[in-house]
Amino acid sequence: KIPSDSGIIEILETGTSKMLKTLFEIININEDKLIERYSTVLIFFESDVEILNEKSREVFNKMNEESRVKMHKIIIDSPVKKVHLFGIQKLKEIYGEFVPADFILQMLEHTSEEVKGYISDKADNILKSLGEDNEELFMYYVKTLLLLPNKVRKNKEDLYDALYKFAVKYKERKEEVEELLMDMGSSNIIKDSEKALVTLAKIKKEAAV
């Protein structure tokens, strides 16, 4: 069977070429067992051995959705650049533009500026362009970002500003925006509540003109 994680690390660090060869053979024979061994797959991802890197990618691609999501979060959390960059690449492939909310939160709290910058820039571009005419995309990100803790996204002024512009441009979505702002207006976080209600008043004033 596949050795323990500590056993694998020891072989990689001090093992002879024969021990390494035996390890690779065991891994190939028992590949299916790796699907639930997230920490082992992470060792393979972070390893300097390309054969193990390749094996980790193969295992990731074979995982069912539940296992893949767990592994994906572990990959993105990795401080190793090549690993979290693979995680970002897979985000694009699997989810397209609609990055799941829990990934967004995780990435905004990441220690790597590269990971944090990727999702921040993506969100900012969507807000500034009002979703580039993709209304669903815009609303998805606004709703997700509004619900983030203020410690993660300290300034939400741009969100309310973008919502105002969106409601003015897409009048058929005005009611939906107003409902969202009403919900935020009932927040027990005073700063959020005030911003939401001020934006709501601006939209209603614009509609009355």
Report on the structure:
This protein is 73% helix and 0% strand. It starts with a helix and ends with a helix. With 209 residues, the chain is mainly α.
Note the main attributes of this structure.
209 residues, mainly alpha
SSE layout and pairings?
Blueprint: H1 5-14, H2 17-29, H3 38-46, H4 50-62, H5 65-77, H6 81-95, H7 101-108, H8 113-128, H9 135-146, H10 157-169, H11 174-185, H12 190-208
Q: What percentage of the residues does DSSP assign to strands (E)?
A: under 5%
- Let me know the largest β-sheet: none
Overall strand count: 0
Measured between the Cα atoms of the first and last residue, the distance is 74 Å
Write down the Rg: 23 Å
In round numbers, the mean pLDDT is 92
Tally of alpha and pi helices: 12
